[in-house]
């Protein structure tokens, strides 16, 4: 596997674990609120938040079973997957979830406000190495991502 291929696979795992945790958190929260209040409009309280925090291990098992178990590469990246899910769960298990800017489009303008250069400089995006993080969706930037621009111009 090429370096770019490995980076792309690891980024895919990172993004999939984030999306999975976000969806799982949202669904689980809605289910808990519905069970406790019979209304899906209730605000979170300490008991709900505590319950969501204890779900991290279950989320990993569910993610691994549904999205990872059939892949031949799973053993070599299992520690990475586990840590991605753990961190993703901590990011989404908040009143205002931390937001990951998912992969940009190849060929679009390289945004130096969102990304640092990986190995070379350039003006057009080739691929994302690591995503940019925001305090929440549409919130301030926490950390620029890393991206590889296209060779040439």
**Number of structural domains:** 2
Strand order of the largest sheet: 1-4-5
Structural class: alpha+beta
Largest beta-sheet details: 3 strands, antiparallel
Rg, Å, rounded: 18 Å
The H-and-E topology, N to C, reads as HHHHEEEEEE
Q: Mean pLDDT, rounded to whole units?
A: 82
- What is the count of DSSP helices, taking H or I runs of 4+ residues? 4
Low-pLDDT stretches: none
Strand fraction equals 5-15%
Q: Tell me how many strands there are.
A: 6
Helix content: 40-55%
Q: What global shape is seen?
A: flat
The termini sit apart by 26 Å
Summarize the structure.
This protein has two domains: 1-95, no CATH class; 98-153. 49% of the residues lie in helices and 14% in strands.
Sequence-ordered SSE layout with sheet pairings:
Blueprint: H1 3-37, H2 46-53, H3 56-68, H4 74-92, E1 99-100, E2 115-117, E3 125-130, E4 133-134, E5 141-143, E6 145-149
Parallel strand pairs: 2-6
Antiparallel strand pairs: 1-4, 3-6, 4-5
Helix pairs in contact: 1-4, 3-4
Pfam families: MIEAP
Domain Mitochondria-eating protein C-terminal: 70-148
InterPro entries: MIEAP_C
What does this structure look like?
Residues 70-148 form the Mitochondria-eating protein C-terminal domain. The protein has helices spanning 3-37, 46-53, 56-68, 74-92, and strands spanning 99-100, 115-117, 125-130, 133-134, 141-143, 145-149. A hairpin with a 6-residue loop joins strand 4 (133-134) and strand 5. The chain starts with a helix and ends with a strand. By secondary structure, it is of the alpha+beta class. The protein has two domains: 1-95, no CATH class; 98-153.
């Amino acid at each position: 596997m090429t370096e770019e291929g490995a980076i792309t696979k690891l980024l895919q795992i990172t993004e999939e674990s984030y999306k999975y945790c976000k969806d799982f958190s949202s669904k689980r929260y809605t289910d808990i609120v519905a069970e406790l209040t019979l209304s899906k409009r209730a605000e979170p309280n300490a008991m709900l938040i505590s319950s969501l925090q204890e779900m991290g291990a279950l989320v990993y098992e569910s993610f691994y079973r549904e999205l990872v178990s059939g892949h031949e590469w799973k053993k070599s990246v299992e520690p990475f997957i586990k840590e991605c899910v753990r961190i993703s769960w901590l990011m989404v298990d908040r009143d205002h979830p931390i937001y990951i800017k998912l992969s940009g489009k190849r060929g679009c303008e390289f945004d130096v406000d969102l990304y640092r250069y990986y190995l070379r400089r350039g003006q057009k995006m080739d691929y994302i190495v690591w995503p940019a993080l925001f305090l929440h969706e549409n919130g301030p930037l926490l950390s620029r991502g890393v991206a590889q621009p296209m060779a040439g111009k």
